[in-house]
Amino acid sequence: MVGTEILLNVLKSPSLQFYRDQKLLHRYNPVYYVDLAPNKDIFIRHFAGKWEGRFRTNSLGMRGLEEPDSTKPQLACLGDSLVMGFGVSDEDTFCHQLNGIELKGGARQTLNLAVDAYGSLGALRRLQDMAPKLKNLKEVLFLFLETTSLFQKNLELKECYRMTRLMKFEAEIQTLIEILGFSLNFLVLLIPFRL
């Protein structure tokens, strides 16, 4: 492991630097194996020049610098690399773009709980881990790309209900779809959250 790190530092090729930077963003998690390391600030450049951007995490390992504010109602964004914003800077993630959205008459602080490389069950485990740290969490926005596999594994939706003690889906889903500009090929769930 140490030898690999030394080799990556010596070679400094664009592709090795890209993978090294990605490695620095992540850390091991015993429950869901990988999550974002806290307090990171890294500029990542794709080795083929396809994109570049600044990637920062707060003290809880969530994408972006903003810390949870318990005085504000919170909306958590949950999903995979698309939701996390892989390939774009912090301010260009859709979760950041939703910050301040009015739901049920109140502005929401959006918090990006997404981590690349998660499936829906990994995302739910992350929610279970992070939710107790968010003192004013009102809704969770789940966004999944592979709806077929999600529906084939109905257990995951049942697990979602069990883990978050959810009662019903909310009507604001259509509003969020319009704001985000997604087609209905995505599964977007806005769910009231109760601990």
Automatic annotation (TrEMBL):
This is GDSL-like lipase/acylhydrolase family protein. Keywords: Membrane, Transmembrane, Transmembrane helix. SUPFAM superfamilies: SGNH hydrolase. The keyword Transmembrane helix applies. It comes from Leptospira interrogans serovar Pyrogenes str. 200701872. The chain crosses the membrane at residues 175-193.
